[in-house]
Inverse folding.
């Protein structure tokens, strides 16, 4: 379990980015970490893996503070950052040098992911495009078999077909023994993958619910303008074809969760949306 | 696998050293190749100009490049850490800060010394071969250093440990910044020393401060003559481990 315990972090002393955040993330689930630009998603992820240290509180992985960066804890967590660069080595060489640090690294799975991404292990890393490099680090991160895989904007830089390969690969790697945290702006890319949505806004976790809870408490529908006026809506967004709306799921109907609309609703009408649960 | 979860594992230190050397193999090969080439060129020029190979020239130059190369390579040992796009990979690599410090020290101090000595040996060997080919004599074959070898080794260890601190502390221009800091610290120590001498030592009849033992009282003179040497030696021996401990904490506290 990853536990943020009263986590406080600031870059500038007088302006805290996070103020005593509490959060518990359980293994075996896929968490979608959403937030506006500058909300601090990347900073939060860096705190979770020990790349940044909180000024107050702690981030614990299975009860151990990640700040200590002990091999034992680091063997169970891997981050795929949004921005990274590789040394001038062949893919195979890079993996040969880094994989031995991860006791559960699966070479066969890594080669499988590479094949899926149409990459060759003999290719030089710095000769690859950013999108291809992203595929290599994704393949490596998945093959480490760490308990936690944290991804910051994983689909950025991937083309349309690569995005679908990415979804397929992530779906195939989901197990009860692993937890995933995916931070993204492109919610559509992870729509069918996530089990839990966490929204970060103004230094606070303003929403943390499972997809099941969302589905049973909220309903997403496309209404005509007149209909929208008659119903008590939690959030609505007008567009050319009518009104996209979120309302309470009073009848227990199943509706497709529109993540983009839900995210906007949470940001604009935090209280109303949270009260629906 | 149990060994791998400890805070210190020799196996992981080995992996870190291998990772460090292979990742920087091109730069290291160029640096050592250039060092050997320059040294050999100096030997050949020496042969051609003086019609003899003076080993003192070759070894003197070799030791100068050895020391310079050691400082440059040590200053860059954490270059990965100082690159925001690469630093994460080093920090999240499952190895403890102690292992990372030890690996950096072994590769920059021990392995570098072995490789550097080998390069000097090879260059001297080739220089001698050229001299023999042209029938030139080899001068100063019993090259000897003014400073005792153990002092040279201690100074080498201190210098390398100091540049490791610089490598872990500064994010850019580590080599220059370490040199600048060292110059600043030494200058400050000289100033403090001069001030202390002015305060402690009596003034001579001419009005200037004179460091002459007859001006000191007996106890202080005895202390300076007998104990001070050991204290200074102790400080000298402790400097390298002290710098290594500082490096360890710098790595431990490092963020991206």
């Amino acid at each position: 379990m990853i536990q943020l315990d009263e986590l406080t972090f600031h870059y500038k002393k007088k302006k805290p980015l996070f103020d005593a955040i509490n959060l518990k993330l359980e293994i075996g689930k896929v968490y979608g970490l959403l937030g506006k630009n500058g909300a601090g998603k990347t900073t939060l992820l860096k705190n979770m893996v020990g790349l940044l240290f909180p000024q107050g509180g702690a981030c614990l992985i299975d009860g151990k503070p990640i700040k200590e960066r002990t091999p034992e804890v680091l063997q169970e967590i891997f981050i795929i950052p949004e921005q990274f660069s590789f040394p001038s080595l062949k893919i195979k060489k890079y993996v040969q040098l880094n994989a031995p640090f991860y006791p559960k690294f699966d070479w066969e799975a890594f080669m499988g992911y590479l094949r899926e991404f149409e990459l060759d292990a003999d290719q030089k890393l710095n000769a690859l495009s950013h999108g291809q490099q992203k595929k290599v680090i994704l393949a490596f991160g998945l093959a480490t078999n760490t308990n936690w895989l944290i991804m910051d904007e994983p689909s950025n830089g991937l083309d349309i077909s690569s995005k679908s390969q990415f979804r397929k690969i992530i779906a195939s790697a989901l197990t009860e023994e692993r937890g995933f945290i995916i931070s993204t702006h492109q919610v559509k890319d992870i729509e069918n993958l996530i089990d839990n949505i966490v929204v970060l806004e103004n230094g606070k976790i303003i929403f943390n619910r499972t997809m099941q809870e969302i589905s049973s408490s909220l309903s997403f529908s496309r209404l005509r303008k007149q209909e929208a006026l008659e119903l008590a809506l939690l959030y609505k967004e007008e567009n050319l074809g009518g009104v996209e709306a979120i309302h309470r799921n009073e009848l227990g109907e199943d509706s497709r969760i529109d993540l983009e609309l839900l995210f906007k609703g949470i940001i604009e009408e935090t209280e109303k949306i949270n009260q629906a649960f | 696998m149990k060994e791998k979860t400890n805070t210190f594992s020799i196996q992981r230190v080995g992996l870190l050293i291998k990772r460090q050397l292979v990742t920087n193999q091109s730069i290291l090969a160029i640096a050592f190749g250039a060092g050997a080439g320059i040294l050999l060129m100096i030997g050949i020029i020496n042969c051609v100009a003086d019609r003899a190979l003076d080993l003192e020239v070759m070894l003197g130059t070799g030791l100068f490049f050895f020391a310079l190369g050691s400082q440059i390579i040590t200053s860059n040992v954490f270059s990965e850490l100082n690159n925001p796009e690469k630093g994460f990979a080093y920090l999240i690599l499952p190895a403890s800060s102690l292992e990372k410090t030890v690996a950096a020290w072994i590769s920059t101090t021990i392995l570098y010394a072995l490789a550097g000595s080998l390069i000097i040996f090879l260059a001297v060997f080739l220089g001698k071969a050229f001299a023999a080919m042209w029938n030139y004599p080899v001068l100063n074959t019993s090259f000897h250093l003014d400073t005792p070898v153990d002092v040279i080794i201690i100074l080498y260890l201190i210098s390398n440990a100091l540049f490791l601190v610089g490598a872990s502390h500064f994010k850019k221009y580590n080599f220059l910044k370490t040199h600048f800091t060292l110059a600043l610290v030494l200058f400050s120590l000289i100033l403090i020393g001069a001030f202390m001498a002015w305060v402690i030592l009596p003034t001579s009849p001419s009005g200037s401060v004179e460091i002459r033992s007859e001006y000191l009282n007996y106890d202080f003179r005895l202390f300076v003559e007998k104990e001070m040497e050991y204290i200074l030696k102790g400080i000298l021996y402790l400097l390298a481990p002290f710098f290594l401990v500082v490096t360890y904490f710098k790595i431990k506290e490092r963020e991206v």
Q: What stands out?
A: Helices of chain B lie at 10-23, 25-50, 55-75, 87-91, 97-133, 149-169, 174-200, 218-252. Chain B touches chain A through 33 residues (CB under 8 Å). The first strand of chain B starts at residue 53 and ends at 54. The radius of gyration of chain B is 23 Å.
